[in-house]
Amino acid sequence: MKNIFLVFSIFLFVHVHSARAYADDGYRLWLKYNLITNQQNLDEYKQSIKAWLVEGSSPTMDAAKHELRIALDGLSGSTIPEVNSVNGDGVLLAAAYRNSKLLAGIDLKSKLEKAGSEGYVILTSNINGKRVIIITANEDIGVLYGVFYFLRLLQTNRDIANLDVVSFPRIKLRMLNHWDNLNGTVERGYAGFSIWDWHTLPIYIKQRYRDYARANASIGINGTVVNNVNADPLILTQRYIVKLVALASVFRPYGINIYVCANFDAPIKLGKLKTADPLDPQVRQWWKDKVKEIYSLIPDFGGFLVKANSEGEPGPQDYGCTQADGANMLAEALKPFNGVVMWRAFIYSYDPKDRATQAYEEFKPLDGKFEDNVLVQVKNGPLDFQPREPFSPLFGSMPRTSMIVEFQITMEYLGQGTSFVYLAPLFKECLESDTYAKGKGSTVAKVVDGSLDGHSLSGMVGVSNIGADRNWTGHPFDQANWYAFGRLAWDHELTSEQIADEWIHMTFSNDSDVVEKIESIMMPSRENVVNYMDPLGLNMIFGYDNHYGPGPWIDYSPHKDWNSTYYHRADSLGIGFDRTATGSDAVSQYYPPVAKEFASLSTCPDNELLWFHRVSWSYKIQPKSDQPLAERSGHTLWDEICLHYYAGVDSVRSTQRAWNSLEVKIDDEEFRDVQMLLEIQENEAVWWRNACVLYFQTFSKMPIPDGLEKPDKTLQYYESLSFPYAPGTW
Ligand code: GCW
Predict the structure, then answer these.
(1) Does the beta carbon of 229 sit less than 6 angstroms from any atom of ligand 1?
(2) pTM over cut 0.85
(3) Are the C-beta atoms of residues 350 and 303 closer than 8 Å to each other?
(4) Which of 25, 43, 113, 311 is catalytic?
């Protein structure tokens, strides 16, 4: 009997586990290269690509070869041979034009001019009467980018019959910034520890470093800042520089330059100088020597990112100097090597008037004072990566300065590791905002791609959401945010829908039902979170320091501008921050058409209402003339706040229903992971809703509208919750 039971158990084990033979742990990201399941596409592709050829050799061309080999074999389910001549129809040829003998007879001058140094050209053509698909570029890196583009066409089952593509990046520096500490923790990281194993570097080169580089190159990211902006000066010591050398050589073939965050006091902390005064000749020399040392080992080092005089970090103001003095000192040291300085504008100190106006007040007068290899790095909004903020008024206000926009890919303020949020709509909302700096159409995108003011240096940086979790990002859907960030840095005109569509095809399935359903839950996901966290322009009402969960009652920080009450200002009369002329007048930092729109209650968008206005509880939300009739509210502010909180929870529940309907249609492991995370998110949404509605009700004294489920716990219960071990708060 015992034996029968054993046999049965073994049978069950084998059976259950073989049923999960295709379980996907997410490690391969969007570069899965699984067999194409649509037979018609598969036949067509096999017909068009019978062999492949990479002409020329270099580490980058080897990377292109590697990618083509694994991808074509995986996607086709067979071995597509590598050849060394165009010996028949159906050769896929990848080559840098100037190194190619095979392409010599084909005139691609105008296309290649357009492609520039990083772009590529993809063409269906003929060589010696044989039909070929050509992937070419001016530089090897362009070829590699082109290879990834082409593979994406196959992964997403697109037509490859008559290709004629020229693509080039809009933005020069397309970067990730890892807030990774040298001890392996990640500030605001929700996907485990740091991927950099500083202890075993430089000898042990993890495969993950290469796969990181592949993933980034596949979306066009060309720079990485490997350490936290709250920078440990040790990264600048010889001991760490050799580790950076090792990483840089893994990244180099993939077109990725390495950058580090520099601690402004490094001359004191490492160099034993008495000061870090940027005007002191010894300090300047110390930085010059340090930069020279780095470049002697990493000739393509990118430069420094600096957080100065912000949240306790040292900076030039400690020595009575300006932010520009500090940036320029580093710029001078980096210039001979073509390095750049990214100097953050994220500065604030306690100001009873308004924290949101400070970066502009500090930096705008410095326009024109920065060296030309400095970029001022501005967070998308004037405060701090809130689920929704208006765009920072610094965009468009410093025409003589190169700008780099900083987005947060990691979701510090959007539910962290358990939240299903697709961030492309948030990125796009900022990029498409019109600053009116040079009249209508002066979008933030045009400021950061340099075209508005004619800057060749331009940039977009994302605070990375990558960690050592097997699937890189913790929540499977956070991979989409890394992906979307890179795609938008390459081409900010792509729509959120296009990017989601690509990513779903590559990550989950080419089944159109699956794609449509997942897209339909990704697209509103950011708005859902705004609704149950901080609707109608509310912001900064998070749990203290950990920024996880609701904390609108937080009022005990000695740092008054870290208190939620500083931001929502709720009392018995109303709620919201008056940023019009009767208040902090933050609106005046925008160009007149924008300032006018935000300043008037009748034109200010509802979703920014309490950001710019202080409004009474019984104020009737004004119907906006451009809103469809059905959406025109007429509700009191109190009712509208409640309705948003409740709608947020409902939408998480409908996301759950939609996701559940995908069971068996997608990978079992990924299905279950997301299902469980959505369950956690639903709890969190209810927690946010109940806590905020109960808290604000203590001021409004108005009832929760009829028909809405009543909170099942008390405000005291929610206020008593604490999270001493919340992840990411290192
Ligand atoms: O959002 C705040 C975060 C800090 C972060 C800071 C910054 C790295 O809470 O953790 O520090 O912004 O951007 O410098």
Answers:
(1) yes
(2) yes
(3) no
(4) 311
